[in-house]
Structures are given as structure tokens and as C-alpha cells.
Design goal:
Elements (H helix, E strand, L loop, with lengths): L7 E5 L2 E6 L20 E4 L1 E6 L19 H5 L3 E6 L10 H14 L2 E6 L13 H7 L3 E9 L9 H18 L4 E6 L7 H9 L7 E4 L5 H12 L4 E4 L13 H11 L6 E4 L5 E5 L5 E6 L4 H11 L5 H4 L5 H6 L16 E4 L5 E6 L2 E5 L2 E2 L8
Parallel strand pairs: 4-5, 5-6, 6-7, 7-8, 8-9, 10-11
Antiparallel strand pairs: 1-2, 3-14, 12-13, 14-15, 15-16, 16-17
């Protein structure tokens, strides 16, 4: 995502095949559709690295289990690549269901990967082994989201996290994948102390750990700044509700802090936590409120950051395109480049999503969803 000036972009099949000042539709190409984007910005499709594809939640009993993601929930807001995860509930939701949902969304037109595991340790897997899941199952890029510093965790030990990260690392090495340990951060007093300990005490590199929810509160976020300065990735969740999460740092403020603190922009990612739940508990652990997270918050965060004057568009896009794609080693994702997948979003002058293309296929045209999931009305 960088300024290239006024350009024509040619898609053929599912790839970007040419970018130039002018591309004349050649009869040799066969049938060519020309889409006028004058006055708009054409940007890479968004990569959302943390989505509860089959829903999440349940902290308020069975009626509070959030629903599955539908295709247009993602494409309507510019998301063309997702990484699915389980959360608190690994009893009524299963790894096989998550994998099946990911495959279904891919059949419907977008690109998908998943994490193996959930909040609890030992983590649920597809094959009985984190390492084997990463090596054998094409869609598994790491293990997560495993809960740390949270009253909903299984209260694992630091050694448990070391062993999970080690399994994920070797699995990633043997399969050419990222092999990350994706960590859910609660607001417990230990925060990410164990991660810093493991970096010092073991041979595991900081890049094997991808904690999320850093912007849950200011104290935790400043630990995220420290983590990023040490070489890690600080992930900002874009969905929040000020009515039940008053302490949460909103994305524009979070990016402003990163800029002011000198965090390299290539170490910042944003994710929506889409279709997960946003529960709030009192001091006694009683549930006080809950809403479902929205994938649409990812694009809203980008637009808010630009409109607040914190970053120009090309920089505000990095945390939702090239950065997560690079961190998770997702092939041909995160950029508009020749040879990359033809995932693109057309933004109008007000930075609203106008058109969306996923692997060369038109998913949204003139703000209207034209490709819907099998069970969408």
C-alpha cells in the first residue's frame, strides 16, 4: 500500500497481472470489463487476522453464543482474507467446525486460514498435535487464541506457553508457515510478563508470539508498545463498545500513541475480533454486559485514523494489509503487486467502500453486495 499516482490495474483470473499508467484493453485478452475508478482510491484487500468465523462468546450462558460470520459481513467492509479462531468455548464449538467454515467461505470466494486451539490448555487440535496440525493441515498457520492473564483461561503455566510456542515454531519451520502462538490477553495484573520472560529464558524469537487485545486498557497498551519496540507485533482490536468498555483505547488513539512512542509502523496490526463477544465483568467476575464484535470495525478504524489526521491512507492501510500478511506468511496477500492475488478495494472520496474484488471476482459493486453466501437472503 503506497501511492503510485493514477494507474490502470489489470486482473486476469485470480491475479494482478499488470499495473501501468495506461493499459489498453487488447482483443487478444478476450472479453475485458473496464471499471471506472476515477476520483477513488484502489487499495489492497484487507487481511483480518482474528475472526470468530463460527461465532464466540457464551459467557452469559447459551443464549449469548454469537452467530457465525456470513460472507457479506466480511466483503461488504473490504475484508478479502480472514484467519479464523476459537475462543472461550471449545466445548460446543470445535476445530473441525472451524476448518469446515473456513473451507466454506473459501468456496464462496474469499481466502481463509485458521489457528488450531482455543483459550484453554491443553489446546484442542485436529490431529492431536499442534505441530502436526500446522504441518499437515493446509489452512492452519499457528496456534491460538490461547488465553493469558484472563480469568476465563485454564490458568496454564509459563512452561505451557513455552511448549506451545516451541511446537508451533517447529511446525512452521517444517511447513514453511508462520507457526505463531496467538495469545488472547486479558486485563490480569501479569499482562504479558511471561512472554518477555520466555524471550529471555528460551531460544524462542519474539516473532513466534502474536498477542492481541493490547488496547484493552492504557497500561496493557503501553506494554504492547514495549513489546513492539523489542521486535514484536502489537495487535489492536478495532471493535469496542464505549458503553461497556470505557477503558478501551480506540484505534485512532492507539495509532497516535504508537507514532508518538516511535513504534515502527511495520510492527502494528489491527484485527476486528469479528463475531466474538465483548463481555464486561465486575470485580466479582459477574457478567455486566455483552455485544457481538463487528468485522466492519476494521475499515472504520482505517477511515477514522485517516480522517483524524493521524496517518495518511497508505500508512493507515499497512496494519490491515501488508503487516498481518507478512507476520503470518500469507502468500500473495496484503499488497497490490503484479503476481499477487487480485484482492482489491475501491474507496470513494469519503473513504467509503465502493467496490470489492476477491481473487479477481467482483464481490461488491457500487456499494451493493453482488455475491452472497449460500444461505444469505
Amino acid at each position: 500500500p503506497q501511492k503510485l499516482g493514477v494507474r490502470d490495474v489489470l486482473f486476469a483470473g485470480d491475479r494482478v497481472v499488470h499495473i501501468a499508467e495506461h493499459i489498453e484493453p487488447n482483443p487478444a485478452y478476450g472479453e475485458v470489463e473496464v471499471i471506472d475508478c476515477i476520483g477513488c482510491s484502489v487499495v489492497p484487500g484487507y487481511v483480518d487476522q482474528h475472526v470468530h468465523l463460527i461465532g464466540g462468546g457464551g459467557e452469559g450462558s447459551f443464549s449469548t453464543r454469537t452467530p457465525e460470520v456470513m460472507l457479506s459481513d466480511l466483503t461488504s467492509c473490504g475484508i478479502t482474507t480472514v484467519v479464523g479462531t476459537l475462543g472461550t468455548d471449545s466445548v460446543t464449538r470445535h476445530m473441525t467446525s472451524l476448518l469446515a467454515k473456513a473451507r466454506g467461505l473459501e468456496e464462496e470466494g474469499i481466502s481463509t486460514w485458521i489457528y488450531t486451539g482455543a483459550y484453554d490448555v491443553p489446546v484442542p487440535t485436529l490431529t492431536g498435535s499442534v505441530r502436526t496440525d500446522i504441518i499437515i493441515v493446509d489452512k492452519v498457520v499457528g496456534v491460538g487464541e490461547v488465553a493469558m492473564s484472563d480469568h476465563r483461561s485454564s490458568q496454564p503455566t509459563k512452561t505451557d506457553f513455552a511448549q506451545l510456542a516451541a511446537q508451533a515454531r517447529v511446525g512452521g519451520m517444517l511447513s514453511g508457515k508462520a507457526g505463531v502462538l496467538h495469545i488472547h490477553l486479558g486485563d490480569g495484573k501479569a499482562m504479558i510478563d511471561w512472554v518477555f520472560d520466555l524471550i529471555k529464558e528460551t531460544e524462542l524469537p519474539i516473532t513466534q508470539f502474536t498477542p492481541t487485545h493490547f488496547n484493552k486498557n492504557k497500561t496493557l497498551f503501553m506494554e504492547g508498545v514495549r513489546f513492539a519496540k523489542a521486535g514484536g507485533m502489537v495487535d489492536i482490536i478495532t471493535t469496542s463498545s464505549s458503553s461497556i468498555s470505557p477503558g478501551r483505547i480506540q484505534p485512532p488513539e492507539a495509532l497516535k500513541i504508537c507514532v508518538e512512542e516511535g513504534v515502527p509502523l511495520d510492527r502494528v496490526t489491527m484485527s476486528s475480533d469479528g463475531n466474538g463477544s465483548l463481555p464486561v465483568f465486575d470485580a466479582a467476575g459477574k457478567l455486566m454486559g455483552l455485544v457481538a464484535a463487528s468485522p466492519a470495525s476494521l475499515h472504520k478504524a482505517v477511515r477514522d485514523i485517516v480522517q483524524a489526521g493521524i496517518l495518511p491512507l497508505e500508512d493507515a492501510l499497512r496494519p490491515v494489509t501488508v503487516n498481518p500478511a507478512r507476520s503470518l506468511k500469507l502468500p500473495r496477500k496484503g499488497a497490490l503487486k503484479v503476481g499477487f492475488d487480485a484482492d482489491a478495494v475501491v474507496l470513494d472520496a469519503e473513504l467509503n467502500v465502493r467496490d470489492v474484488f476477491a481473487k479477481g471476482r467482483t464481490m461488491v459493486r457500487e456499494k451493493t453486495v453482488v455475491v452472497k453466501g449460500v444461505f444469505e437472503k
